[in-house]
Amino acid sequence: MMSDPPSDSGAPTAPGRGRPTLHVGGSTEPEETVVISVSGGTILEYELSDEAQDPALTDGSRIEARFPSYGTYNVTAYVDDGSGTGESVDAILSKPVCIAPRPRLNISPSGTVPTGTPVTFDAGASAGEASGYEWTIDGPEPARGTGETLSVSFSAPGDYSATLDVEGRNGAVARTQEGFTVAATVST
What percent of the chain is predicted at pLDDT more than 70? Predict the structure, then answer.
């Protein structure tokens, strides 16, 4: 996607500017636009994985591209950090672009759950094509599981955290997390 990169001058970063940083934003869905931007510098050249579609460098600070399917793709930017070295590379930045399903976590019942009550964790509302689900429940009574749903009864009261990892095709993984509380059942 690019010609030979400009040579690295090895010049230090300009005082007060900080080190250039690469950011990935926009959509994480296949065929939608991903925005790769740099702060603290200007992109002179870039390289994207061969699968990138319609890559474009706009105004020297952002690259826009689309990726055809779920997976992890590489981006490398050759950056001038403005330290006074002119049109030469001061930093070579690389970062993965992860196109992964968007996990959605529903906990039922919601709110505070009495001890002994089954709690259902459901990933069915996740967007994208998932090939696997992994659950990690942290708290006074930890639990783990796989599958689109997980049901667990807790006997230990306290604050818990449910973490859902959704794996898409080509191994790209996205994560979401949500807290919940288990309260001791009161006898009357």
Answer: 86
